[in-house]
Amino acid sequence: MLMPIFQKENLTTLLNAKSEFCLSLYLPTHRSHPDNAGDSILYQNLVKQLKQEAAKLDAAIPKGIFDNFEKLAQNYEFWKHTLDGLAVFANEDFFKVYTLQRKVKPLAVAATSFHVKPLLKFLQSLDKYQVLILNINEVQLYEGNRHQLDKLELPADFPKNLKAALGHEKTEPHLTVGAYGGAMNNIATSSAHGGTANMVQGQGGRKDEMEIDTERFFRVVDKAVWESFSRDSGLPLLLATLPEHQSLFRKVSSNHKLLEDGLAMNAGALTNKELQKQTWAIIESHYKNGLQEHADSYAASAAHGKGNDNPELILKDIIAGRVATLLLEEGRVVKGKIAQDYGKINYMATDVASDDVLDDLGELAIKYGGEVVVMSTEKMPTSTGVAAINRY
Prior knowledge:
Layout: H1 8-16, E1 22-28, H2 39-55, H3 67-73, E2 85-90, E3 95-100, E4 107-111, H4 117-123, E5 129-135, E6 138-144, E7 149-151, H5 162-166, E8 174-178, E9 199-203, H6 206-233, E10 237-241, H7 243-252, E11 263-264, H8 272-303, E12 307-308, H9 311-319, E13 323-329, E14 336-338, E15 345-347, H10 357-367, E16 371-375, E17 386-390
Parallel strand pairs: 5-10, 10-11, 13-16
Antiparallel strand pairs: 1-2, 1-4, 2-3, 5-6, 6-7, 8-9, 12-17, 13-17, 14-15
């Protein structure tokens, strides 16, 4: 009973939820026994903590809102099939459970909106990537990050191999017909009646046909990968295929998410762990460069008056549509609430149930068309936990 992996469209559902009573719970989980034996115990402890946080809210606790939390705790089959993290959300209208491909810190939040900052880190593409394992007999796609790589389920109509992609449209040998004594000087045979017989000859061998079919197959695969995966995910795509197929696929590909670097080998023979290790070794430099580019961009913007780290000023810039990119410090929580008219931020004591100001700024940035990037403390270019890069 594996719950769905969190996707971008799920974030929209959470951001659009209107409620005075939103419960958010996060916990790290494990993929196998015996490591996963204590996951349900940690979950139950977090549910207790969530109840305590909920009691601090001004709104009355909706009847039965914790029933689904209790049912999940007792679902022993579920706890056998988790991934690396779990996110659970509930209000009076729904109860949502999502598995995550990365570890998250244990967290229980009761507020007037869902706590989504850990998901922003999960969704951002700086360290997420997809891998296309390609050969003429099988196509596989994986998605993951620096910690984990998981195989993706391909659509039913996806071209999973050359035969499935081309079917009966494979290239036939090119044939020519010549006459004895003609300009083509083909070898001819005499008919039994002494006349001149036409002679059929092949132009190009099996190798030529295979090269043509391989190129056609790669075009079909490239189109399918873009339409079914790259276009919506926006993730960088790493090609893992034989050296002789690397240049051919790149020649026909129109997928602008395809990376110049690839894994030139028969990657289908690797274990999942080996594949993750070797692909991340290639992706890591792109990830580090991306982080540095954001930090450098903020420094340049701040120097020209187009960036700042003051939450109150950032709030005004977000509402005005000026913020292009918002950098948030991972794990940093600033207790408080943003006023309903977005005029100011009300900071609160740490022992009071309230929203996380940084989390709320991230939500607003997304709603107003900005990009949100969650960065580690050591990479964060400011000390306030937030930094805005403005359009103007």
